[in-house]
Design brief:
four-stranded antiparallel sheet; 12 strands; globular
Length: 252
Amino acid sequence: MRAVTLERGVAPYAEGSCLVSFGSTRVLCTASVEEGVPGWKRGSGEGWITAEYAMLPRATRTRTSRERSQVGGRTQEIQRLIGRSVRAMLDSFQFGEFTIKLDCDVLLADGGTRTASITGACVAVSDAFSWLVGTGRLRHTPIQRRVAAVSVGVIDGDPRLDLDYEEDVRAAVDMNVVMSSEGRFVEVQGTGEHGTFDRAELDRLLDLAMKGLRELDAAQRRAFEHPLVATTTGTAAGAGAGAGAGAGAGSV
């Protein structure tokens, strides 16, 4: 597993935020609380959580154009995955007609951007619900569990955990695994990129993913051990600066 850091409260205007790093990959996750819900939810008394994902143009080795007029297929797939994963933190959407909008913006891409986004989004959403409770809009948080995600793959016949870009492009088999803090799978995506895999290899990859996911869950727990400090904007910010295991941050 690459070095992982989770720094809370880095975007003080957002109701929840987390800067997550998986090795060189860095993603800024913000959670914004808005009154109102999509039309199909209106009048139900239920809220909603949705997600958007984007890469900064120079998050990659060569410039990637901004998706201004039309969101690409890869981006749609990833933001839907993030949304599904984070909604799995709840058993019910009975928290009033609020929408929590997640923005996961990749600052630097070196493999695992979607898994880092999910892991950081969990932290940002948790703090957004804490903000709703702290400001008297909710009595209690509806969150029942945390979620985290990690990639695994087979490179030169060997299973690898948390692939960076160079490993990802070489992988014969590539998987993304999302799991809850209860140890239950939320989503498993597996592809034979340059080959196939049998049941025994699948089991080995899932075992390796679960090992990494337990480490990520521990990092999330550590990140929540320290309270956020209120700022003059009325939101919160991490008491510690930098990507360390200080206040508002967790690492593995």
